[in-house]
Amino acid sequence: MSRRRVAILISGRGSNMLWLIEAANAPGFPAEIALVLSNRPDAEGLTRAKDAGIATLAVDHKNYPTRESFEQALDAALVAHDIAFICLAGFMRVLTDWFVERWAGRMINIHPSLLPLFRGTHTHRRALEEGVLVHGCTVHFVVPELDAGPIIAQAVVPVVPGDTQESLAARVIVQEHRLYPQALRMICDGTARLENGRVVFAQGWDAGGALHVPAHAERAVSE
User: Fold this and answer.
1) Contact (Cβ atoms closer than 8 angstroms) between residue 168 and residue 159
2) CATH homologous superfamily for 4-222?
3) Three-state SS annotation for 106-166
4) CA–centroid distance for 150 within its chain
5) What Cα–Cα distance (Å) separates residue 14 from each residue in 8, 204, 208?
6) Max CA-CA distance within the chain?
7) Average pLDDT for residues 50-56, to the nearest whole number?
8) If pLDDT is split at 50, 70 and 90, which confidence band does 214 have?
9) Does 63 carry a binding-site annotation?
10) Is 178 labeled as ligand-binding?
């Protein structure tokens, strides 16, 4: 199977970008990171990508009079690099319906909550305010509606007494770094595919496991 050419779109440091690059360097990974593109020429992630030997490009949104003209330049750059899939990794631009629909089924994003809970921003603060006992992250296909695309993969972490936004975010980002490469692998090797607006999986998984929160509850029952 030929490796799928992937572009990562960033606006800043590119934390998840580095984990995607590392995963793609492993033998047998079905995707190659062919381009890291940023709307900010000074994005730290561009330097980090160059250091990793990845082609980089800046398409500065400030140089374009409209969102549409910026996205046309973005699209042209992606087509010129023969990109098959896009991974958004801290890309801080709201994309128009035109761009999203042009890349429908070929663009994915990672969001720091268990969607459909806590769409948008400030997810960790809102999780703590709501008093949920589990939180996490989601990889999904991008659709015009914000954070509403078909879900590819999720990872769950416990919310523990005394958590702050910072401590909860630190726990979630560890899972983001693990989950995003797994999800990219799944859509590039055909394990997960988009069909009629839903993600269909080529194989099942063990449905017997469960996360118990609080963790001591299960021990108390068994004693």
Assistant:
1) yes
2) Formyl transferase, N-terminal domain (3.40.50.170)
3) CEEEEECCCCCCCCCCCHHHHHHHHCCCEEEEEEEECCCCCCCCCEEEEEEEECCCCCCHH
4) 13
5) 9, 32, 35
6) 67
7) 96
8) confident
9) no
10) no
Helices 44-51 and 15-24: angle between axes, nearest 10 degrees = 20
How many Å apart are CA 202 and CA 190, to the nearest integer? 7
Q: What is the dihedral of CA 21, 122, 114, 33, to 10 degrees?
A: -10
Separation CA 117–CA 206 (nearest Å): 24
**Which two three-digit tokens encode residue 27?**
């033998």
pLDDT of res. 208: 76
Cα torsion 203, 207, 211, 217 to 10°: value is -170
Tell me: is residue 106 an annotated ligand-binding position.
no
23 Cβ contact partners less than 8 Å away, ≥ 6 residues apart: 29, 181, 184, 185
Model confidence, pTM: 0.91
- State how far the Cα of 180 lies from the Cα of 108, in Å rounded to an integer: 9
Distance between CA atoms of 58 and 145, rounded to whole angstroms?
A: 26
Give the active site residues.
111
Q: What is the mean pLDDT of the chain?
A: 93
Q: Give the residue-averaged pLDDT of 128-155.
A: 97
Q: What is the mean pLDDT of residues 51-70?
A: 96
CB 184 within 8 A of CB 20: yes
Tell me if 112 sits within 8 A of 169, measured CB to CB.
Answer: yes
Helix, strand, coil % in the chain, rounded to nearest 5:
35, 25, 40
